[in-house]
Design goal:
The chain is an alpha+beta fold. Helices cover about 30% and strands about 30% of the residues. It is built from twelve helices and 23 strands. The strands form six sheets. Strands 3, 7, 8, 9, 10, 11, 12, 13 and 16 form a nine-stranded mixed beta sheet that branches. Strands 20-19-21-22-23 form a five-stranded mixed beta sheet, with helices on both faces. Strands 4-6-5 form a three-stranded antiparallel beta sheet. Helix 2 (about 45-65) packs across helix 8 (about 320-330) and helix 9 runs parallel beside helix 12.
């Protein structure tokens, strides 16, 4: 993509309303635009990152055996009355009526709707286990939306829902998602720690939040330092092996880790002082097991092996992709701007032409733009006639992993400079070696 043809509205000044680093940098880097309190447009650069985050989430959900569908954003109030949550959920739910005065709501979550879909088609235990997920916009009318997309009213959510015949198999479904989440956050460049958590209005008694440590975190968290060195399961993990999944979950839940709501001072006191880590944390995912909380009142029954009808055991599993963008920035930035992990960077390479109009610079950049693109890399080519300082500042701000810089003197000598954004490391190499070096 040529920058001269791209829509990248970078702001030179820091917006006054931005309280935390991620909000400031997302606004300045032209990733988002606030439309109203807690409502944001994702501009092209932000949309590219959002798509990459969603792609990784999808790959790991699919790898674990979950099946994607898409449910509507608007839901019938009648479904929520069946489960008993319509009146209990609170003012965060946006209640609306259509022209026929039917009561509807803008969905904050989808337990009721997915249970209705399940009960309409599944009758036998032989059709289980089943895990259905989607990635869809949600709305919760936060009393005080703040911190940009970190706590917005409309947000993108991946929510999955598991259905099983008994608790033992449902616990395996929970473990399967637990492991999938470990892999997902690792691929996103995040060190996420699973912590015991309150289930809130969704219900249930088995729940973990996945937390990344950050000074701007919304809550205080407590964990054992062992979490900083635990190995994340690899691609070869067998999601059909219940015993190995349980062993992984056991490894990742044995050291102490809890949010402030679930903090146990007695258990915390047993952790050696040298191993204690108390910090602020950002929630990036939350998983729940809630048994028959929805299947019983909504008559989601299946016939078991003994011929008797039983309510299915359920769980739900959430990740907020839009929130993740802010969380990644909070965990990976410096004074100059964002430092994107390679896996989610909006472009792989920033190509900077230091002097557009110079024959040697133009020829070298056009060649590199073509050759880098041919290897499958996404390249943002700064072909604009602006000051060198502005070019460097913009590239550092938007945080692309690699910058390839071509100036008149270097182009004439057949050389380019490569800068690694994360480390600041610079290297001058021949133009002939750039593509191989960057694509390695």
């Amino acid at each position: 993509m040529r920058l001269s043809r791209y829509f990248l509205p970078i702001l030179k000044e820091t917006p006054k309303e931005a309280e935390i680093v991620s909000h400031r940098l997302m606004l300045r880097a032209g990733m988002i635009r606030q439309q109203a309190a807690g409502l944001y447009s994702f501009l092209p650069l932000g949309k590219r990152v959002l798509d990459k985050v969603c792609a990784i989430i999808r790959e790991e959900q699919n790898r674990s055996g979950a099946i994607e569908l898409l449910m509507p954003t608007i839901q019938s109030a009648d479904l929520w009355r069946e489960s008993g949550r319509y009146d209990a959920y609170g003012k965060e739910m946006l209640r609306i009526q259509d022209r026929h005065e039917r009561e509807l709501l803008f969905g904050p979550t989808n337990e009721e709707m997915v249970t209705e879909i399940f009960r309409s088609y599944v009758r036998s235990y032989k059709d289980l286990p089943l895990n259905l997920y989607h990635i869809q916009w949600k709305f919760r009318d936060e009393v005080r939306p703040r911190f940009g997309v970190m706590r917005s009213r409309e947000f993108l959510m991946k929510d999955a829902y598991s259905f099983d015949i008994d608790f033992e198999r449902s616990k395996t479904a929970y473990d399967r998602m637990f492991v999938a989440y470990l892999r997902t956050f690792s691929r996103l460049g995040l060190q996420a720690i699973p912590m015991r958590a309150d289930t809130g209005p969704i219900g249930g008694n088995l729940s973990h939040e996945f937390i990344i440590l950050a000074s701007t975190g919304e809550s205080e968290v407590f964990c054992h330092k062992d979490y900083l060195s635990l190995d994340v399961p690899g691609e070869d993990v067998d999601f059909d092996d219940a015993a190995s999944l349980a062993a992984i979950v056991d490894t990742w839940t044995t050291p102490y880790a809890a949010t402030d709501e679930m903090h146990d001072e007695a258990a915390w006191g047993a952790v050696p002082e040298s191993d204690k880590l108390a910090a602020r944390g950002i929630e990036v995912g939350h998983i729940f097991h809630f048994g028959t909380k929805y299947s019983e009142p909504m008559n989601a029954f299946v016939t078991g092996p003994d011929g008797k009808d039983v309510p299915v055991q359920m769980g739900s599993y959430g990740i907020g992709p839009s929130r993740l963008l802010a969380a990644i920035i909070e965990a990976s930035h410096d004074e100059a701007g964002i430092i994107w992990p390679k896996s989610v960077a909006p472009f792989d390479v920033g190509l900077i032409n230091m002097k557009p109009g110079d024959a040697d610079c133009d020829a070298a950049c056009e060649r590199l733009y073509r050759d880098l693109g041919a290897t499958g890399l996404d390249v943002l080519y700064d072909d604009q006639d602006t000051r060198a300082g502005a070019k460097f500042a913009s590239m550092d701000l938007i945080g692309l992993p690699v910058q390839v810089i071509v100036g008149p003197r270097g182009a004439k000598a057949g050389e380019a400079e490569i800068k690694i954004r994360a480390t600041g490391e610079r290297e001058t190499i021949s133009l002939d070696a750039v593509t191989a070096r960057v694509s390695a």
